[in-house]
Amino acid sequence: MKRKNEKYFYWAFLFPSILAVSLVIFIPLLYGIYTSFTDSDGYNMAFTGLENYRRLLSDDQFLHSLWFTIRFAVVSVIGVNVIGLAMALLVTQKTGRLSNLFRTIFFMPNLVGGIILGFIWQFIFVKAFEGIAQLTGLSAFSGWLADTSTGFWGLVIVFLWQMSGYIMIIYISFLNGIPADINEAAAIDGANTWQTFWRVKLPMLAPAFTISLFLTLANAFKVYDQNLALTNGAPFGSTEMVAMNIYNTAFFQYQQGYAQAKGILYLLLVAAISLTQVYYTRKREVDL
How big is the CA angle at 17 (ends 247 and 271), to the nearest 5 degrees? Predict the structure, then answer.
């Protein structure tokens, strides 16, 4: 009788969570999948089959946004993890107040909201860079957000500035988890600082790479607020990322069925890339 009551209590406590997840994630996902097969404009809806998915293959703006986002994700993921790991190594060399101060400083950009962060850096790229261009005569600092190439690097810089400190915390936790006797054994064997890092620390950081790469991939592919604040897709949609393209299709062009098709295709692409990354990085993990 007691076990039976425990079973009821188990489901009674679990039901609110299942209901919340269903209402927020699963039901909207299923409805979105259905909507992707319609010509919904937000008010009227008629089933059109695979027509929306056929349109995607000839949508030049969506394909450009997809390629732009993939390039942004590749550069950003590599940059964030390199910088985050470098900062983690820097602040774990010595312990003390100075190390804790640098950890706090490096992490602080992650506390700033994305849209606010975008407007702060928009001021830097537009006003501060223009002032530098006028003082130095260097045209490279002029019109950063008005050009496709520099606009791309502007988005990358803001993403690196915000995410690197967060990823640093992950690497710090794993670096601190490496047993001290392993480092001491490497030093006794005559390994220098670089050899200790490359041969000892780096293989043991494989679990950290799995987590960090997954987080940075997910965040890089879903960037919207910074894209909106910095460039808003300008000039002529050349810096428009997929999240913005989907939003504009749904709420400015009122083609919500088509926007849902874009979203479903994008979801499958990001899921495939992320799961592939997790699979291959997990294979390289070393048990401490």
Answer: 45
Q: Work out the pLDDT band at 168, boundaries 50, 70, 90.
A: very high
pLDDT higher than 60, residue 138: yes
CA distance 220 to 176: 27
pLDDT tens per residue across span 250-261: 999 999 999 999
Q: Which two tokens stand for residue 114?
A: 């994305």
Phi, psi (5° rounding) for residue 38? -125, 175
DSSP-derived letter for residue 47 is B
User: Cα–Cα distance between 183 and 178 in angstroms, integer?
Assistant: 8
Provide the CATH number for the domain formed by 57-283 in this structure.
Answer: 1.10.3720.10
Provide CB contacts within 8 A for 102, sequence distance 6+.
87, 90, 91
Confidence of residue 276 (pLDDT cuts 50, 70, 90): very high
- Candidates 273, 155, 167; CA nearest to 215 is 167
pLDDT on residue 197: 85
CB atoms within 10 A of CB 194: 8
Contacts of 285 (CB under 8 A, 6+ apart): 206, 207, 210
Average pLDDT over residues 70-90: 95
- CA dist., res. 244 & res. 232, Å (int): 8
CA distance 123 to 154: 12
* pLDDT band for position 36 (cuts 50, 70, 90): very high
Instruction: Sketch the domain layout of the chain as residue ranges.
Output: 57-283
